[in-house]
Design brief:
The structure holds two protein chains of two kinds. By secondary structure, chain A is an alpha/beta fold. Chain A is built from eleven helices and twelve strands. In chain A, the strands form two sheets. In chain A, strands 6-7-8-3-9-10-12-11 form an eight-stranded mixed sheet, with helices on both faces. A four-stranded antiparallel sheet of chain A has the order 2-1-4-5, covered by helices on one side. By secondary structure, chain B is an alpha/beta fold. Chain B has ten helices and twelve strands. In chain B, the strands form two sheets. In chain B, strands 6-7-8-3-9-10-12-11 form an eight-stranded mixed sheet, sandwiched between helices. Classes of the chains: A alpha/beta, B alpha/beta. The interface between A and B is large, with 49 and 42 residues.
């Protein structure tokens, strides 16, 4: 399995939002590479720029407000930022699809869930169907938009519903007739209907109960492995990451401040970015007793007025003069484990924890 | 010496709807000791918030008894004024539970004014600034409006509003669920410090088992309006007896890399309807251990020191 294919490459990406007062710097220099079949978790608090990052991959930043002003995104070698909208529409939903946080608002209340899944298929068709059609004689080919016949669409809707654990007889239901967990399954079914290469899940289980959450996570994990889909899991919950991801990126104020394999990030004996340490110390643990939590003092910075130097410096217990003077560069701690912090940069000479 | 502060006897709240009667809280017996925390855990729709509101008579229960220091909270002749001061609530959403047109100072002053607790303006100011210091709100924020503050600070206002009455008991209805983890940790620490300092008792309602484990002394697990298991914290986490408690514990994603490829123990299906439930165990339809005798009505019974469970097969399953 060496030399895996790189599916998505984000290169030094900067995104800002224009507002009446100031520009809001949501993403500030993100580098990320995703291989086929790999699952990467993006962890961060509110306002860290996780969702903005996802929206810029899909080209869904609000027009005239959100703007990528530096950097590149390559998907299968194709430059997504310079792709025409018409072409983007063919990619969205078919090759890259997204699961949004709130299943209650991401479904259309006046269409049945079956119709909503069918819509994706009408627009894009499935890969398997395209292959079958290619081999069929010309006279038998369907000539409608994505070339999928009604029967084929119906069959695929049934198949995908079964995959997400909903009886196909429920496809005539409207969203309000389903529970929250079932709605989220429908949203996932829509995202998976065309067998995308990349699935972006933005807090897919935050609105769900724990027992339903564990069902949905197990399902995402299973489907991801089965179809070798790449997954970007956006979440604030380390537990969710531990259940579904191979790689973890910790985001803070629009930067990836630490990146590594699941084992590297979760191994408390290895050195980590002070923010990562702070996050871990903030979560109450289900398996061990912590008499007191040790939260990070202060608040995440206002992205319209980011601090000088390292963005974490005002909250960092190890902050020195150097941290407020210059932004830290990327340091590799070990193979595949990188950190953006002055404490670990080569010229400092002192190895921190 | 434990001192019983609050006792709940056979509390029932039914909501009649067109589709049938919703059994939101169904014959619940619980007790809270002075200065201690009772955690109430359950999934959405299990009746935990309704329970919290019934205790304060914010929702009038269908039947049952709530005794606060021996006084019946629900009785017509109850000293409502005194009870209001001694029993308070902190709501889940700091974004919608504060009046957007009031400043921080006025928000905290409101309960004092309504209850005529201050004889002079000076006394009120003193009280408000003292409580702001207790909950970690800087004095300069007194003139700010809620929209100018972040979620953590807003929730501190909620805590301050409850505390300014010097209550003995606070119902905390998911007070940290809407907050980021680092802010959540700050608020949890604050609440535990306040308890230590002022000896307040909490009923901490949440769906988050790790939070409940962190803050509670004893824990009650609710499912479809019923308490299915209750035990001291250590006992419950070390030795869960009810299949639902076990399923809940297994379902929580834990931040541990070795969990990535573990075998998952999932319970199937979703919470069944709380409308006119069948007699017998309400977890029957989802329970991996269900057998015919589970369809008969079940009672809570003791299985250990302070450990009660509503399951006929608890002994076989628990081990």
């Amino acid at each position: 399995m060496d030399r895996e294919e790189t599916l998505l490459k984000i290169d030094d990406l900067y995104v800002k939002y224009r507002t009446v007062d100031d520009d809001v710097y949501a993403v500030n220099g993100v580098d990320l590479e995703l291989k086929r079949g790999e699952a990467v978790g993006i962890v961060g608090e509110t306002g860290a720029g996780k969702t903005t990052l996802a929206l810029s991959i899909l080209g869904l930043l609000p027009k005239g407000v959100g703007e990528v002003y530096r950097g590149d995104i390559y998907f299968k070698g194709q430059d997504l930022l310079n792709t025409q909208e018409k072409k983007m529409r063919e990619i969205r939903g078919a090759q890259i699809s997204m699961i949004f946080q709130d299943p209650m608002t991401s479904l259309n209340p006046v269409f049945t869930v079956g119709d909503q899944i069918a819509e994706v298929l009408k627009l894009h068709g499935t890969k398997q169907y395209a292959r079958e059609q290619e081999n069929a004689p010309k006279s038998d080919r369907n000539e409608n938009k994505a070339g999928m016949s009604r029967e084929a669409i119906d069959a695929r809707v049934d198949e995908i519903l079964e995959l997400v654990g909903i009886e196909s007889s429920r496809k005539i239901c409207y969203p309000h007739q389903l529970s929250g967990g079932m709605k989220q399954r429908i949203v996932i079914a829509m995202a998976l209907a065309c067998e995308p290469d990349l699935l972006i899940a933005d807090e897919p289980t935050t609105a769900l109960d724990v027992t339903i959450q564990s069902q949905v996570l197990a399902m995402i994990d299973d489907i991801q492995k089965r179809y070798n889909t790449s997954l970007i899991m956006i979440t604030h919950d380390f537990g969710v990451v531990a259940e579904t991801c191979d790689k973890v990126a910790i985001m803070y104020a629009g930067e990836i401040i630490e990146y590594g394999t699941l084992e590297q990030i979760f191994d408390r004996s290895l050195p980590h970015h002070p923010y990562t340490v702070g996050l871990f110390n903030s979560i109450p643990d289900l398996t061990s007793d912590k008499p007191r939590l040790e939260p990070i003092s202060g608040l995440t910075p206002d992205p319209a007025h980011l601090p000088e130097g390292c963005y974490f410096s005002p909250r960092c217990p190890y902050c020195t003069e150097r941290c407020t003077a210059a932004a830290p560069s990327v340091t590799q701690l070990e193979e595949g484990h990188i950190v953006k912090c002055h404490r670990f940069s080569a010229e400092s000479g002192t190895e921190g924890r | 010496m434990e001192h019983r502060l609050l006792e709940i006897h056979d509390l029932v709240k039914y909501f009649p709807t067109n589709a049938g009667v919703v059994h939101a809280v169904d014959h619940v017996d619980l007790a809270v000791d002075a200065g201690k925390t009772l955690g109430v855990v359950g999934e959405s729709g299990c009746g935990k918030s309704t329970l919290g509101r019934c205790l304060l008579n914010l929702i009038r229960p269908t039947s049952g008894q709530v005794l606060f220091e021996g006084q019946d909270v629900l009785a017509k002749k109850a000293d409502k004024k005194l009870l209001k001061q001694q029993m308070q609530i902190i709501f889940q959403d700091p974004y919608s539970s504060l009046d957007p047109r009031k400043t921080v100072f006025n928000l905290i002053a409101e309960p004092l004014k309504i209850n005529h607790l201050c004889s002079s303006k000076q006394e009120m100011e003193e009280k408000i600034y003292r409580i702001m210091e207790t909950v970690g709100l800087a004095e300069r924020l007194a003139g700010s409006y809620p929209h100018e503050l972040d979620g953590g600070r807003r929730q501190r206002i909620g805590v301050a509003r409850a505390l300014v009455m010097k209550p003995k008991f606070i119902v905390c209805d998911e007070p940290v669920s809407a907050l980021d983890v680092s802010i959540q940790a700050q608020i949890l620490n604050l609440m535990m410090d306040i308890q230590e300092e002022l000896g307040v008792a909490y009923m901490f309602i949440t769906h988050d088992l790790s939070v409940v484990r962190h803050i509670s002394h004893s824990i009650a697990v609710m499912y479809l309006g019923e308490v299915v298991e209750q035990a001291p914290k250590k006992e419950l986490f070390a030795n869960p007896k009810h299949p639902y408690t076990q399923a809940l514990l297994a379902a929580v994603p834990v931040a541990d890399a070795s969990r990535r490829n573990r075998e998952r123990k999932l319970i199937q299906g979703e919470v069944t309807s709380p409308i006119d439930p069948k007699p017998g165990c309400r977890f029957y339809a989802r329970c991996p251990y269900a057998e015919p005798k589970c369809q008969e009505p079940t009672e809570l019974r003791a299985v250990g020191d302070g450990h009660v469970v509503r399951c006929v097969r608890a002994e076989e399953i628990g081990s």
